Amino acid sequence: MMKRRDLIAAYGRLCLILAAFAFSVGIIGAPLLPRIWSPAAVVAQR
What we know:
With about 45 residues, the chain is mainly alpha-helical. Helix content is about 85%, strand content about 0%.
C-alpha cells in the first residue's frame, strides 16, 4: 500500500495537471465563447 506522503504527492500532481488543463482551455475558449453565444442573444433581443 502507498504511504500517506506518496498518496498526497500523487493527488497533488493530478490536481496540478487538471488545473493546468482547465487554465489552458479557458485561455483558448474565452475568445470563442462570444461567437458561440452571440446568435442566441441576437434572436432573444428581437
